[in-house]
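Transmembrane 4 L six family member 21a, Seriola lalandi dorsalis. Tokens?
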Amino acid sequence: MCTGKCSRCIAVTLYPLAVISIICNIVLFFPGGDIKYAKDGHITEEVKYMGGVVGGGIMVLIPALYIHLTGQKGCCGNRCGMFLSIAFAAVGVAGALYSFTVAVLGLQNGPLCKVLLVWKMPFKNSDRSYLSDDTWWGICTEPKNIVQFNIGLFGTLLATSCLQVILCAIQMINGLFGCLCGTCRTKGPL
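Tokens:
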């Protein structure tokens, strides 16, 4: 496959992943679909780090746009464009790794929820894992189903960031080939 076509495929795949990351992070601000928790500051700290918006969103979307444009010119643009795509893909890797780290912390620490009458993070620094013991989830009384909500969205952020890292790393290798080997235009008859 031509390096330009590969760039376009990677970029087209990165677009929906970036949008999914942004949407997941925004939805995390509204547990149970209610704005009162965000307004009152009862949101998990990892949500405020904006890993899905900044890391998996903007820091991946901008490189995806450039990578897509690199693949537009004929077969793969030029060597300089492919070289720059390596740098842009590295920015995408950094953003996806930031999103990955925030998602892991969000899953590890668990949600901020009301336990009896106190808002706290009951699963943080506990001896047993709440991820494998769903009988423990009932201690969170408010917001309703907050544990499932956080696991689902942080899990989605984790999966999308892994795919983003892989795709951006492939583009770094693809860009290196495009930079070293040049374009793959057909020369035609001599």
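The chain has a mean pLDDT of 87.
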